[in-house]
Design brief:
With 295 residues, this protein is α/β, with parallel strands linked by helices. The two termini are 36 Å apart. Helix content is 44%, strand content 17%. The chain is built from twelve helices and 13 strands. The longest helix is centred in the N-terminal third of the chain and has 22 residues.
Length: 295
């Protein structure tokens, strides 16, 4: 049995769908089973709880031989990052160790490193989670994906809507920083293969798609895919930071925060090696096909 945290999220839905498509038994951690009808329809067992409830994590891993850990938050106070991501991962690893779990697959994020851990709370939490996973004694695989694109969630639908509705396309800063978007189904395949292969245990893999583009190139491709000729405008980071200071006060999941701007300013978000490509040899979806599928 595979126990999945974050199963009801954007990436989690793709991972669970891939696992179930392979006929694997999946148990999903969910806050409210009544809101997890899709997971139930796929034949998943639903385990009520969350990352701040250690008892629910122990119930979830009971009888599981593999854990797929996908839970993370992108905004909030320092205490929230620690409680949900750091403390929650510590409790999950303890439960997994006690239950005799034989494989722990953890989703980190591209850009996570000792050098970036003090940049923003998100990176700090991700780095501490990685360190705990590596030191846990539970056989593990860590994946660090770049921007994850899909038609049903993540940031790509927001970008597509912006390209469709905005009279001009706002590009933060110079637009020369590079990204390497990866399709959500490809990420799901990495996790499913990682759960099945003994030769990847104990390794950390950076995941990116087959195309590396600047933000300028990305927006050009997206608008070309939609047949749009609207101009782009480069917005100074300082102005975007002021905007983020205001929008952060709004309720809900805010797409632009000051922390995200810090991460964008830091540099390129591209893989530093081809270990994942050489090891897994997956036929990754090219960026133009990603954009075509999303629009």
């Amino acid at each position: 049995m595979i126990f999945v945290t974050g199963a009801s999220g954007f990436v989690g839905g793709h991972v669970v769908h891939e696992l179930r498509g392979r006929g694997l038994v999946v148990r999903c951690l969910v806050r409210d089973p009544r809101k997890a009808a899709k997971l139930a329809a796929w034949g998943c067992e639903l385990s009520q709880g969350d990352m701040t409830d250690p008892a629910s994590l122990r119930r979830g891993v009971d009888g599981a031989d593999t854990v797929v850990h996908l839970v993370a938050i992108r905004q909030g106070h320092e205490e929230q990052f620690r409680r949900v991501m750091v403390d929650g991962t510590r409790d999950l690893l303890a439960a997994a160790s006690d239950a005799g779990v034989r494989r722990f697959l953890h989703m980190s994020a591209l850009g996570t490193s000792e050098a970036t851990k003090e940049l923003v709370p998100y990176y700090r939490a991700k780095w501490e989670m990685e360190e705990m996973v590596r030191a846990s004694g539970v056989p593990q695989v860590i994946f660090r994906p770049s921007f994850i694109f899909g038609p049903d969630g993540g940031i790509l639908p927001t970008f597509a809507k912006l390209a469709r509705l905005a009279p001009v396309t706002p590009i933060i800063g110079s637009g020369r920083q590079r990204i390497q978007p990866i399709w959500a189904d490809d990420v799901a395949t990495y996790f499913a293969d990682g759960a099945a292969r003994d030769d990847v245990t104990g390794r950390t893999f950076e995941l990116g798609g087959p195309d590396v583009v600047s933000w300028n190139e990305f927006w050009g491709r997206l608008k070309a895919m939609r047949g749009m000729r609207r101009p782009s405008i480069h917005v100074p980071v300082s102005l975007m930071r002021l905007n983020a200071l205001l929008t952060e006060r709004l309720p809900g999941n805010i797409p632009l925060t000051r922390d995200l701007l810090k991460m964008l300013e830091y540099g390129d978000n591209v893989v530093s090696n081809d270990d994942a490509v050489r090891t897994f040899r997956l036929p990754l979806v090219p960026l133009d096909d990603q954009l075509r599928r999303a629009v």
